[in-house]
Design a protein that fits this description.
This protein is α+β, with helices and mostly antiparallel strands. Helices cover 34% and strands 30% of the residues.
């Protein structure tokens, strides 16, 4: 889910991400399919561990990375991932707000718009 620090990092990354192709070198099934991907930015090779992708060792993936810190990488386009996280945060707020309103205005308790007894 969207967090303030994670959101700012994604905004930063989405503004200047670089796209390359990486190769899945391992998948850790005990750690929610954490995926280690190897990619190169021309000067160095990196192997960041990314959230589970459903890929298998040897698969090729599109990798988006921060050119200032290539260890910060993602397999989802950062701007799209941020939009999804913001959408889910808004939906959760809407659902929780509606639920809270129903509880507050529930018959048998205080009625909306009336003073308490």
């Amino acid at each position: 889910m969207f967090t303030a620090l994670g959101g700012f990092a994604m905004i930063s990354l989405s503004r200047r991400w670089v796209v390359t192709t990486g190769t899945v070198i391992s998948v850790d099934r005990e750690r929610h399919r954490a995926t280690t991907v190897r990619f190169s930015n021309g000067a160095r090779t990196y192997e960041p561990e990314l959230p589970g992708t459903g890929a298998h060792p040897g698969d090729q993936l599109t990798v988006y990375y921060d050119p200032r810190d290539p260890t910060r990488a993602a397999t989802d386009e950062p701007g799209q991932a941020l939009r999804y996280d913001l959408f889910m945060a808004c939906m959760a707020s809407l659902v929780l707000g509606t639920f809270a309103s129903v509880l507050i205005c529930r018959p048998g308790l205080y009625r909306c718009g009336q003073d308490s007894p």
